[in-house]
Amino acid sequence: MKKIKENPIVKKLGFNRIVLTGVLILMYVLLSLMVNNFAGLPRIMSALNYAYFLGFLSLGVTFVIATGGIDFSIGPVMFCCALVAGYSLTSKGIPMLPSLLISIVVGLIFGTWNGYLVAYWKVPPFIVSMASMNMAKGIASVFTKTQSVSWPQAAQGGWFRNLVKVGKFPVGLVVFLCVAVICSIILNHTKAGRYMLSLGSNREAVRLSGVDIKKWEMLAYILCGILVGIAAIYYVGAYTTVQPGYGDQYNNEAIAGCVMGGTSMAGGLASIGGTVIGVFIIALLQEGILALGFTKDYQLIITGLIVIVAVYADVMARRRKN
């Protein structure tokens, strides 16, 4: 095993990412054998629709976890973005493009709020995210008067659905992968990304070196908020109707995709490529569970187990390294 990990090709591609890709392929093959027509285009498109919005959530929270923080508000904030923007479109008569921008702006506001409280007020990230989760639910309910919001179909002027797919072509997959590449460049090849990772590995050393750690920590939450706003657009692009008070279930799934992909919950280590593969595994798992006739509850159980196993593996890896 050690020789395999030290192989130049394996090092370049990443051992963890290679293993995850193998798991993804194996899952797909097994489900195709167990379920009739699972390998067909409808099932693949359904899994991809789930992967898009979950993927943007996971990319966003990867930045936060890289700094050693956490954000459990991303699911409800995504629903708040979709509800506020959708209500502005359907009830206030605001045009489509400004409404889509409202979704991103709402996410940006929440990200800035969370980042400011964590970085400048030193409020623990767990407390901040729990408070923001409740605030997002409350704001969405007040704004929409507790009513659900249905975004228009393509035939009714909902051209934004072309961001998800055009005919049978998965436009959303192209957009998601392009955004993932940008996130990878930010995290691995920019000063901002290096400081975010350094905050997660040794915050005090970074502070003593004269770096403005508050600015870079806040930036991680801002990026997360922007990506959550984009996730909301892809959620309504695939599922149309949004109800107030929901979104919690997507927190663990997004975090599971990150941790499974090699992002350490302790901070200082993150993999955008691993997050992308982890998201596809979660999306395929969700589609497979439904195809096998089980309810969504089983996915919640399995996702919880995945988080525990992934975090335990990370803890053991850090112990061996130390």
What would you say this structure looks like, in words?
The protein is mainly alpha-helical and 322 residues long. It has one domain (40-311): ABC transporter involved in vitamin B12 uptake, BtuC, CATH 1.10.3470. It has 13 helices and two strands; from the N terminus they run αααααααβαααβααα. α8 packs parallel to α9 (191-208). The two termini are 20 Å apart.
Concise synopsis of the structure shown:
This protein is mainly alpha-helical and 322 residues long.
C-alpha geometry: globular
Question: Please, how many helices?
Answer: 13
Number of domains: 1
The run of helices and strands is: HHHHHHHEHHHEHHH
CATH topology: ABC transporter involved in vitamin B12 uptake, BtuC
Radius of gyration: 20 Å
Main sheet summary: 2 strands, antiparallel
How much helix is in the residues?
A: over 70%
Topology:
Layout: H1 2-6, H2 8-13, H3 15-34, H4 41-66, H5 74-90, H6 96-119, H7 125-144, E1 149-150, H8 171-189, H9 191-208, H10 213-239, E2 241-242, H11 249-260, H12 272-291, H13 296-321
Antiparallel strand pairs: 1-2
